[in-house]
Fibroblast growth factor receptor 3-like isoform X1
Amino acid sequence: MNEAETKRVREIEHKTLLLKSLSSQNAGTYKCNISFLGYRASELVNISVKAPLKPDIQMLNEQNNFHANEGKGFSLTYNVLSYPASDIKWWRSKDGKVYDLITQCLASKKCENHGGKDHITKTSFEIKDLKFPNDNLLYKCNTSNDYGSDSKTFQLNVYVKPEINMEKTYRFKEGLIINCSLKRSNPPEVNYTWYSCNTPNCVGKSLSETSILRLDSQPKSVMKYQCKAKNAVGSASKIIEVFKSSKSTLSKL
């Protein structure tokens, strides 16, 4: 300890030094001198004072939007800077208006085990085996202590390739419109291509590059057509059959 910076706190006849109403001014190194019947000894003690700090959530690779493919996992590392320690709550929402509580981590306890596939601690957030649309949600982390609060929200997009939902057969009529409808797709932006299956692999010039195929004529009694749908994750295809009704069939209708 530098003698020029030494300041006597007080002389006491007790072995305990009591500092009331601690502030940052009390931080520093303290020296205790002992003298008794010609015996002298001293000891240095460093005292640091933690000032109250409202919560500050820090997320690794923080983004407003995250994405992961269906069937994969998602994990996020975070840290809450605060003093005293903060209560932490995790929420999820479909629309950003109504939030459901996933779990809470009280300052003096571990995170509650809610029995779901989410694994949440005071420093990590993890979901295993992502499903669309169940896990395709908004997630929010709220923290609070006696001196304030903080909140972080992000969207988790669970990506899945298109799944086509069409009938297998259609009856031809002039101006027939067939829609290559989807059961699900995320991201929803999809490129469509229709082909005539006159060749084994349904290759050749495309008939349409939208989800709609319009047929004004059909050279054969039975024709096959293929719809291909592709998004950023992958692609799917389905072959459908269009048949002409014979005169005998029509007379029976």
Remarks:
- The domain at 53-159 is CATH 2.60.40.10 (Immunoglobulin-like).
